[in-house]
Amino acid sequence: LIFSETLENDKRVLLDFLSHFTLPLHRWNQSSPSCHHWTGVTCSGNRIVSVRLPAVGLNGLIPPFTITRLSSLKTLSLRNNQLSGELPSDFVNLKNLTHLYLQRNRLSGPFPATLSELKNLKVLDLSNNDFNGSIPNSLSRLTRLRVLNLANNSFSGDIPDLHLPNLHQIDLSNNKLTGAVPKSLQRFNTSAFSGNNIIITVKEKKRKTPLGLRQLPFLLILSAACVLGVSGLSCIIMITCFGKTRISGKFRKRDSSSSSSSTPPGNWTSRDDEEGGKIIFFGGKNHLFDIDDLLSSSAEVLGKGAFGTTYKVTMEDMSTVVVKRLKEVVAGRREFEQQMEMIGMIRHENVAELKAYYYSKDDKLAVYSYYPQGSLFELLHGKRGMYDRVALDWEARLRIATGAARGLVKIHEGNNGRCVHGNIKSSNIFLDGCIGDIGLTTIMRSLPHSTTGYHAPEITDTRRSTQASDVYSFGVVLLEILTGKWPVNAETKHGEKMDLVTWIRNVVAKEWTGEVFDMEILSESGGFEEEMVEMMQIGLACVAVKQQERPHIAHVVKMIQDIRSTD
Ligand SMILES: Nc1ncnc2c1ncn2[C@@H]1O[C@H](COP(=O)(O)OP(=O)(O)OP(=O)(O)O)[C@@H](O)[C@H]1O
Q: Region labeled Disordered — which residues (predicted)?
């Protein structure tokens, strides 16, 4: 009873807060449970611990004694709204607050003194508001503070000597501050103080970690060099070895400033996208993040594919998504949006969910669910030498093949039966055959054909991929599953290297079928060789040279299912 009463109380508080604004919020009503269902609300135990309402159109004063009654609140994000006036003094009640995001509003008045009392604060962002007056010395009380952003306000006077041992990011740029940078803050990059009347006498130090996205051009150059010089895989490993990268600011300037590889990191720059960049979500999901969240989250490079770099991004609430930064998009905004909308509508357990997309002049992003088990490519070929690769047994391979075929059926049903994947390959297939990277080929520059081994012979421009060419690529994946070999340069028993499809056709023509199977599954005691032979015949049917001879993917699903049902 106590449990639900406390939660009910928190819920009433939020409804009270909302009643001061004339805007509807997704699923915020008395009848639905607030935890997990209300936009931006997260609970822990019987309390609401996080309220994140970025860019929802909150307008006017922050109503006092509403949200501040959520005494267990740890994260409050009201960024990117049109909130104005002073911060109510009752913010002092939010004793448990660790993250406060109020940037990009129209808040004004002196630095809210009450904030210095929130001893648990780790991140404080008041940037891009109209605050004025001096920055108080009392900020030194926030000994846990890690990030302080007061940029783009009208703060004036000298910068106090802040002794904040845990501070590793500060931005005071573009205010009206005067004097010198105090000793305690001289460890930070000078750009953190730019746009003021400050005498900067400090020497710039090179910061080691964390890397900023400002260094992303450097990472990209490095990865390009790797791709040219070393194998792609080792490059990915090298980049990953740099550890976590901070995605922050400068997203939009990336392409135009490759020289910024030498730009010293330090503060982060708020995004100001006059090109109208907007993140679009699918499925009526809680907007637990916005583009600024993405930009300020911890990111790790998963790899660099033909469509761009893929990042694993860990959000403030510790949820994980995958962000693909699409380069060489040839489609215009309208076409891009239409394609993404079409992809976003495809929902199936064997289709990797496109959660959101973002389009601006300089950046095109696609946001997906993260599959921690990695791709089929990794399961089949990956991590050898670094870790003990877990053997992938025949059952698992059959499950993946069935799942991926079902996913492809669903994809081909999309867009009134006209949707094409265009880039079916093992690195785009995840847990239990879930297919990722749908429909990107049509909006991107054509992929280099010769290198992949998955593309059907008739495809010279991957933007013109067809459902029949998808079936061909799927057939290559089936053969890869059966042999455990890479589609290009598959090494035969006799040490020759040839294209996987050609090799299997040759072997089968000589009736040495058993030779092609991966020893890992062939040595299993279940006696599955017959099933493997059947699967190989399905794979070979899919890779028929003449497109009209390839089966429809729905028929492929049936044939794969029949492998077992004939038992
Ligand atoms: N949603 C995801 N969850 C987990 N890993 C992913 C996800 N999406 C991609 N990856 C992995 O990230 C790495 C890079 O992926 P990316 O799609 O950029 O390149 P690719 O699949 O090698 O080539 P391509 O660009 O042609 O698809 C690959 O190892 C891929 O398996």
A: 251-272
Please, are residues 481 and 401 in contact by the beta-carbon 8 Å criterion?
yes
Amino acid letter for position 111 = F
In this structure, what token pair is assigned to residue 413? 């049903």
Confidence band, pLDDT 50/70/90 cuts, at residue 492: low
Q: What is the pLDDT of residues 199-211, one digit of tens each?
A: 765 444 333 333 3
Do residues 564 and 398 lie in contact, with contact meaning Cβ atoms separated by under 8 Å? Answer: yes
Burial of 514 (0-12, 13-18, 19+ CB in 10 A): exposed
How far are the Cα atoms of 321, 387, 468 from residue 428, in angstroms, in the given order?
Answer: 16, 22, 18
Above 0.95 for ipTM, yes or no?
yes
> Rounded mean pLDDT of the chain?
79
- Cα 458 to Cα 180: distance, rounded to the nearest angstrom: 67
Is 203 annotated as belonging to a binding site? no
Q: 3-state SS of the chain: helix, strand, coil percent to 5?
A: 35, 20, 45
The number of CA neighbours under 13 Å toward the Cβ of 190 is 11
Measured between alpha carbons, how far is 313 from 539 in angstroms, rounded to an integer?
36
494-537 pLDDT per residue, tens: 667 778 999 888 888 777 777 788 888 887 767 788 889 899 99
**How many whole angstroms from 383 Cα to the centroid of ligand 1?**
15
Return the SS3 of 343: helix
More confident call, 350 vs 492: 350
Q: List phi, psi (to 5°) of 183.
A: -55, -40
Q: Do the beta carbons of residue 482 and residue 532 sit within 8 Å?
A: yes
What gap in Å lies between CA 109 and CA 84, rounded to an integer?
Answer: 10
Helical segments of 345-424, H only? 376-381, 394-417
- Residue 517 Cα to ligand 1 midpoint, Å, equals 26
Angstrom distance (rounded) from CA 320 to CA 317: 9
Enumerate the β-bridge partners of residue 369: 321
Share of the chain above pLDDT 70, in %: 76
Instruction: Tell me how far the alpha carbon of residue 304 lies from the centroid of ligand 1, in angstroms.
Output: 8
Atom nearest to 310 CA in ligand 1: 18
Q: How confident is the model at residue 451 (pLDDT cuts 50, 70, 90)?
A: low
**Are the CB atoms for 269 and 250 separated by under 8 Å?**
yes
Q: What is the pTM of this model?
A: 0.61
Which residue's alpha carbon is at the smallest distance from atom 16 of ligand 1? Answer: 305
Give, for ligand 1, the residue of 371, 427, 441, 446 to mutate: max count of ligand atoms closer than 8 Å to Cβ: 427
CA 345 to centroid of ligand 1, rounded, Å: 21
Torsions phi, psi for 534 (to 5 deg): -60, -45
